[in-house]
Amino acid sequence: MSANEAYRQNHDVKEPPFGFWWRSYAMLIKEFIQLRRDRVSFAMIVMLPVMQLVLFGFAINTTPRNLPTAVLLQEDSDLARSVLKAIENTAYFRFTREVHTVAEFDDLLQSGKVLFGVEIPRGFERSVRRGDKPALLVAADATDPVAAGSALGALGAIVQTALEHDLHTGDPPSMPFEIRTHARYNPAASSRLNIVPGLVGTILTMTMLIFTALSVTREIERGTMENLLSMPIKPVEVMFGKIVPYVLVGFIQATLIVGIGVLLFGVPILGSLFTLALLSTLFITTNLAIGYTFSTIVQNQLQAMQLSMMFFLPSILLSGFMFPFAGMPVWAQYIGEGLPLTHYVRIVRAIMLKGATLQNLQYDTIALIALMLLAMTIAVTRFRRTLD
After folding, report:
1. Best CA proximity match to 199, nearest among 348, 310, 83, 74
2. Cα–chain-centroid distance for residue 138?
């Protein structure tokens, strides 16, 4: 029999009106008071994002390959297929989608489902043979400027490869068509526009995990957990009271990071601030739920810190923060899909740099909600076992 059941059976306690909300409110006030007293932790909350943003914002660069590419093939000719095959043979491009309209082409780039798009116009081969020098369009999601620059730079060599088999049998031919490249969302190829939005999620992951993972273990080490266990309070109420204050702290932290990114690094916010705030709050809550789950697993603060760092390291490496997610091996992508940071990196970059809407971000939003509910379920279940 649990402590709650025994207390109610012995004292015949009647549930008061709004009991859940009053008890949760009491836990909330208690956590705010404890947070105010722990000035060192509060100082770390403010200083860590500033220090990491300045240090990492100038330093990180990567070069991926096999990036997903869409093709708008308005003409199905031998030359068009040869050009596409030559593009794919560069190892920078991997064709994953074939679309039929410009609207589909643009939507795939904006939603982040592909990083490149190749458009071959109607009458392409006939224009080449007539010497009209038609244009082939290659659009790039340049939110990762290094990946886009390396891939676009490899396009020049494909012309000879394609034309030697289809138009010419002697010396290398002259360029019979032009390749027009269009770097979207970051035409100046600034690495900061790629790194800074990703740092928003990275810093929030680290700080929210650590501070929440330490919350329950701190109660155990200080001996206050016994007082909680003796109170007529439900596990979900304890979790609610402990998470809400840090949701507000995390929101302040996210505002600070985004503000510094805009003012210091010149990162634009092209999308809706409300959508960014809403999904940032969802991401913060998801990380807090995971951190709370960790706190129900470990026995002391050192273990909580170690478990948090073990989760944080793959989040950095497999989320798409350091290099494009689509360029990773398939097994790594499966692991990355289970990390909240993966989905938030896509969200924050899409909103800030592409002006994406909630409709463009449905998959990542649903994934964050599912991860949050899973973590909360595990946390409440494990805490209930502690009470029993």
Report:
1. 348
2. 26
User: Tens digit of pLDDT for each residue in 20-74?
Assistant: 788 888 888 877 777 777 664 566 566 667 756 665 556 455 667 788 889 988 8
Tell how strand 135-141 and strand 116-120 pair up.
Answer: antiparallel
138 phi-psi bin (left φ>0, alpha ψ -120 to 50, beta other): beta
* CB of 365 closer than 8 Å to CB of 279: yes
Neighbours of 303 (CB within 10 A): 15
| DSSP-assigned beta bridge partners for residue 278 | none
Taking CA atoms, 349 is separated from 110, 141, 192, 337, in Å, by 10, 11, 12, 17
What do you get for the CA distance between the two ends of the chain, in Å?
Answer: 6
Would you give the distance in Å from CA 282 to the centre of its chain?
12
Q: Does the pTM exceed 0.70?
A: yes
Distance, CA of 368 to CA of 365 (rounded, Å): 5
Distance between CA 380 and CA 388 in Å, rounded? Answer: 12
- Cα 139 off chain centre by: 23
Cβ pair 246, 211 in contact under 8 A:
yes
